[in-house]
Amino acid sequence: MNRLGAETLIRNLPAATARPALIKQLVTANVAAYAYYSYASGAGKIRYRNFWTLQPESGPQCLFTFHFCHTNLAPLLFNVGLLATLGSHHVARHGVNHFAKIFGISAAGAALFAGYDMRTNAKQTQAGGLGVSAGFLTYYIMRDPSALKYLRFTPLSILAAMTFYGVYYDDKAVLGGLAAGYGAFLAAL
Q: How far apart are CA 57 and CA 112, in angstroms?
C-alpha cells in the first residue's frame, strides 16, 4: 500500500464521479458556444456578442444566454472545470433537481445584478457564467466544504478571492452569484 494514500485521494476527488447527462449537456453547450465564437468571422462575432452576451445594446434574452456564452478562454475553463468536478459531485450526492435549483438561483442572482448594472453602467459587458459558478461555489462551500478537503487552502479563501475579483473588476454578475449562493444556503435549500 502506498504510504501517501494517493489511490484513496484520487478515488475520493470530485472529478472521479461519473458525469451525469445534465452536466455533459451544460459542458457541451458552453464549449460549443465558445467554439462558434472563436471560429466565427468578424461579422459573426459581432452578431454573437450583440445577441448572446449582455451589453447595453443587447435584448432581454441576454439575461439568460450570457451565462453560457463565453468570449474568453479563462472563464470557460473555470466554469467547465467547476461543472465537471463539483457539479458532478453535487448531482451524485443531492440529485439533478437540487443542482438545477441552485444553478437557477445563482443564474437569477447574477442576471439581476448584471441587468441592473447594464442600466447604470453603459460601458459594462457580461459574457460567460462566472456569476453562476460563483453562486454554486458559494453554496457548495457553505453547505458541504468536506468535498474540498483535499485543497491545500481553506475553502473560504476561494470566496474571498471571488469577492475580490468581483469588486476589483466591477463584475456584478459574480457579486450577484455570490449573494444568491449565500442566500440559497441561508434558505436551507
A: 17
Residues of the domain holding 67: 6-186
145 neighbors 170 (Cβ within 8 angstroms): no
Rg of the chain over all Cα atoms, to the nearest angstrom? 17
Min mean pLDDT across 5-14, 22-31, 158-167 is at 5-14
Residue 1 lies in a domain: no
Calpha distance 135→138 (Å, rounded): 5
Number of domains present in the structure of the chain: 1
The larger pLDDT score, comparing residue 137 to residue 52, is at: 137
